[in-house]
Amino acid sequence: MADPKGFLNHGREVAETRPVAERVKDWNEVYVPGSLLPIISKQAGRCMDCGIPFCHNGCPLGNLIPEWNDYAYREDWAAASERLHATNNFPEFTGRLCPAPCESACVLGINQPPVTIKNVEVSIIDKAWETGDVAPQIPERLSGKTVAVIGSGPAGLAAAQQLTRAGHTVAVYERADRVGGLLRYGIPEFKMEKRHINRRIEQMRAEGTRFRTGVEVGRDIKATDLKKRYDAIVIAAGATTARDLPVPGRELKGVYQAMEYLPLANKVQEGDYVVPPISAEGKHVVVIGGGDTGADCVGTAHRQGAASVTQLEIMPRPNDERHPVDQPWPTFPMLYKVTSAHEEGGERVYSVSTTHFEGDEDGNVQWLHLTEVEFIDGKLTPKPGTERKIPAQLVTLAMGFTGTDRENGLVEQFGLDLDARGNIARDADFQTNVPGVFVAGDAGRGQSLIVWAIAEGRSAARGVDRYLTGASDLPAPIRPTDRALAV
């Protein structure tokens, strides 16, 4: 155990953020560099090393949280890094981007603020990179087997790294011009600077993983040709089909999917553009969707100099605190969350639904018409007399994703079966109905969290390894049927 009285003597302290007026003028991460290390030992010491650590259940990766909390408390950073990497390939990603279901399941959280698990995690990995404790793990021998991984998001990268370390020759195919998937072009720079992806990719290259960017399987190369070339294939293409809003005026200029808008801002930071082709500068911006992607659009619009930012959510405003009956510990509760983007300004409107868009004579969106909604007999129903319009010169749709891309032909060319929800079906080993073709991440699970994506990649890698060699020592933290701990 770290500090037996740590949870009694110390309150919860989280990472310090830079002043709003400063950070909205740049694209750097919002946290004060180095602000965690002076406090993280005490925060790690709040961990009670429970007899039954429910944080393990909250995290699909099965992270050994009490163990690396103990090492962090003692400032044994090398040992902490080893324990952290034992279950997680990319803790610098999850430590910045994961909503931390482990903290919702923390036993201390029953009657106190939970341990700052996410902050401890990111402190350990940042220290490990600083001290050189993150090194390539080159396999001692090669198996002679080849594997193609389609998609370079967290699931694809995790599967590729595990299989490379198992001795297989792995090539990752990415349709974008850079590696990283949504980590690269969906997550804004202020949430995670892309240098974290770059140095992890260099580690993977040093281990032997190969990357093929700008190649879309199904269009640039036929899936059937890829299957002939490789002994096994892992499909980790994500669930990139965005949910649309079929209302009058949807065709107006200025109404975009979030994933049409966000990547362009990231490409500016990569040096591809001086000014993004779609910008919020001087415009009244409306973001439809109250989730993390919507918050990313809000923060991006602030940095581009929007005249105003309004975020709409069709559901009611969540509670500030966990409801003991509806969302009991240790489930992951839906709570009112103020992200760094929301701290920077803008208005959040709940229980409203868009009825239509109104444009000018040139076909540019100018107004968004909405109505308040309420639950009647279990259905969201418009409230009469609540219709109004708000200015909207740029609208982003951030309403989630409905499944993997079907337009590029990948699913049809492989001849893959889909489940009832439109995801690629797989068996207990993450193998599809086509022998040698596996699926990991959102393409098989549906839209989910980054920790689930990494866990899927690790588990699918075990299935591939066993398919290729007859047995496997690789870990499999989850089954395809496992779901988050929820009511």
TrEMBL record:
This is Glutamate synthase subunit beta. It comes from the Bacteria. InterPro entries: DPD_II, FAD/NAD-bd_sf, FAD/NAD-binding_dom, Glut_synth_ssu1, Glutamate_Synthase, Helical_ferredxn. Residues 39-131 form the Dihydroprymidine dehydrogenase domain. It comes from Streptomyces nogalater. Keywords: Amino-acid biosynthesis, Glutamate biosynthesis, Oxidoreductase. Residues 146-319, 364-457 form the FAD/NAD(P)-binding domain. Pathway: Amino-acid biosynthesis. The keyword Oxidoreductase applies. Gene3D superfamilies: Alpha-helical ferredoxin, FAD/NAD(P)-binding domain. It holds the Pfam family Pyr_redox_2.
